[in-house]
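ok so for the tutorial part 2 we go from a plain amino acid sequence to predicted structure tokens. step 1 is just haveing the sequence, like this:
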Amino acid sequence: MELLKKNIHTERIKSKALLQIPLETDINVPDAKPDVAKVIYDCGTIKVDEIKTGMNKIWVKGKLCYQLLYQTDGEEKAFAGMDGEIPFMEEIYLDKLEGTDRVVCRSTLDDMRIHIINSRKLSIQSVISLEPRVEESISEELCVELDSAGEADQKLEYRKKSLDFLETIVKKRDLLRIHEEARLPSGMPEIGAALWKNASISSISFRPMDEKLGITGELNIFVVYREDTSGRVNWYETVIPFNGTVECQNSREGMIADVLYDIGHEEIAVREDADGEFRVIGIEMTVELEIKLYEKESTSIVADVYGVSCEVQADIDSRQFRDLCMELDIEEKLTRSVRLEDADPKILQVCHSDARARLAEIAWKDGQLRLTGEIDLQVLYAANESESGLCPVRSSVPFEIVRDIPDVDEGQLDQNSVSVWIPQQAVSIKDSAQFEWRGSIHVRILMYSVKNEEILTDLKVEPINADVLEKLPGFAIYYVRPGDSLWQIGKRYYVSVGRIKEMNNLTEDEIKPGDKILIVK
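step 2 — the prediction. this is what the tokens look like for a chain of 521 residues:
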């Protein structure tokens, strides 16, 4: 007896952890930079450089990359910028981890504050989250049919069942290289010295295509600079669309894309245009991609088997299979009024706003999905001419998003892959002391579940024992008990289900307690 099998590839979470750590340090202002009077604007990102694995633990090596714009100390209200890196190394315990396992670590900058100690020294206080996990690739063989050709004396009865699961088609790391440029509008003065240069991905989407993964998104570019002729401070902000592809063997349209991304190398340079003026802003960026492409599969497998004219020993084992419960794209519009403190300079013009969403909790209860978190909002504005130049405002926008999601069993949820971004935002001036921020938050959630299924792994067929044959009745009336099925009755008396239905004039497999079933061997 031969088992005809089908190979499938899936995966499961072997181990995961979450570590939130404070990262504090003092930094000195470089000798070439002027003294610090006031920090105007700042931003930071976490980059993981290396992950070393051991038995039940990993070492994550990375850095906090910071950038700040500050007002110099002196009679003139001048501005300067500086940036740098703060390295870190963390040891994290991961249960069941082996040295050869592949670890993916997601990093988040939860908070960063910069304080002035004196005009030549600053203190940076931050909180970062590291979320490592190990996803184990699994290859399974599923029995889809039994081949009994040439074995007429081995009559078997078997039943099949449908198995739904996610099959992993592509699992790889890759890089997307972005080369873009922006040009200052003709009415703006050329760049003398760049004080602040920042490029961030405001939105990104992934689309599986034939043998490749299509990527589209938008870069938000913001530059603060000193003009070449007058020396005044000016700024420029723009959005640049980008697109690209990476090769993905066996990729097809319609697959499910679960892609994590981080910004790797990043370089923003000011270049000359054809007229020899510094009006071109060049952006080179690498986006590190952790790509997984899935395909929903449904296949019919052999669930159980017994012998009619032989003795069968079926090896049944429980295996785990991953499935996709739900794929959600949620967008919510938000507004927030931000009022200045009494001592803050009055508003003349909005220069730039930066909004970063942090998702604090995902909860399912009573058929509802509830998302809570907050948006860290930072606005840079130009003050009245009689006041001091550029000024910052910080605020937070709490949010709660509720959606009705029926038919979700929270106990079966194994993992959620969540992506949060703010595709649109705008800041308007309500009056000289108040802003209004309007934006939308987009949340994409892939809800996975893990289910255990009994599958047939092996089969042994032997001649039926003479003692068993001796005890089998040639004719019997069986009274159905609660929980009985035609399959169980046939297995007990070595009779096929088809034979039982034929002898009892049954057209369906359904029976109920108290029914009388005629058994004829």
